[in-house]
Amino acid sequence: MRIKMVAGNWKMNKNLQEGIALATELKEALQQNAPKCAVVIGTPFIHLASVAQIIKDSPIRLAAENCADKVSGAYTGEVSAEMVRSTGAEYCILGHSERRAYYHEDYDILKEKVLLALQNGLKPIFCIGEVKEEREAGKQNEVVRAQLEGSVFNLNAEEWKNITLAYEPVWAIGTGLTATPAQAQEMHAYIRSLIAEKYGKQAAEDTTILYGGSCNAKNAAELFANPDVDGGLIGGASLKAPDFCTIIAAR
């Protein structure tokens, strides 16, 4: 059985005090209204250890937004997968389009990050998706296949069980544009077919695939109604507890 999940990605928002306040508000809200799905919040590195203590004994799980592609050493400013795990985080968001675009993370870098995350007991939430020009050229399937083959289809069947995928049409992130429910379902079904080709039908059925891209309190229920959309990777709407809780309730 695949896991239904709503994951928040705070990105580079909230100072430490604000992050602690948001995590506390979320914890209290979900204690009153228990979620029917897995709930994960992805926070900046500096929040991880503090937030881990706040959400202990709650249904919320913790994710880092990134990790290094190196084990340790003279890499000033980097944070290793081992360091992330030591904070209490269970998940790590990797392959986000912003990391690919702004920090030039290619297939090989992401492959290393995924392997190091897994070796340190982290569960990657691996992001894939096409930019506007690729969608307009009808190349979205080709792009998504290449991203999977380039960075995660090297994993063995046992390692694959720890992977959550997030399909994020880059043209819909932070733009207010959203893939239609039909577009989301079409791509999620295609991704599942690729997993079936590689790892078999049961593995494909068991893999959680989230939708990310201007998913909010108003459109979440319609998107989540699709049979192959298992939840959402939520950006801006995860920064306000009431909005995030509405999305969680929609799952």
Give a structural overview.
The structure is a single chain. It is built from 12 helices and 8 strands. It has helices spanning 16-32, 48-54, 81-86, 97-102, 107-119, 132-136, 140-151, 157-160, 181-199, 201-206, 220-224, 241-250, and strands at residues 5-9, 38-43, 60-64, 91-94, 123-128, 164-167, 209-211, 231-234. Strands 7-6-5-4-3-2-1-8 form an 8-stranded parallel β-sheet. Strand 2 (38-43), helix 2 and strand 3 (60-64) form a beta-alpha-beta unit. Helix 1 (16-32) packs across helix 12. The protein is globular. The protein starts with a strand and ends with a helix.
User: Largest sheet, described in full?
Assistant: 8 strands, parallel
Q: Overall mean pLDDT score?
A: 96
Overall, the morphology is: globular
Residue fraction in strands: 5-15%
Estimate percent helicity: 40-55%
Cross-sheet strand order for the largest sheet: 7-6-5-4-3-2-1-8
Number of strands: 8
Write the layout of secondary structure elements.
Blueprint lengths: L4 E5 L6 H17 L5 E6 L4 H7 L5 E5 L16 H6 L4 E4 L2 H6 L4 H13 L3 E6 L3 H5 L3 H12 L5 H4 L3 E4 L13 H19 L1 H6 L2 E3 L8 H5 L6 E4 L6 H10 L1
Parallel strand pairs: 1-2, 1-8, 2-3, 3-4, 4-5, 5-6, 6-7
Helix pairs in contact: 1-12, 7-9
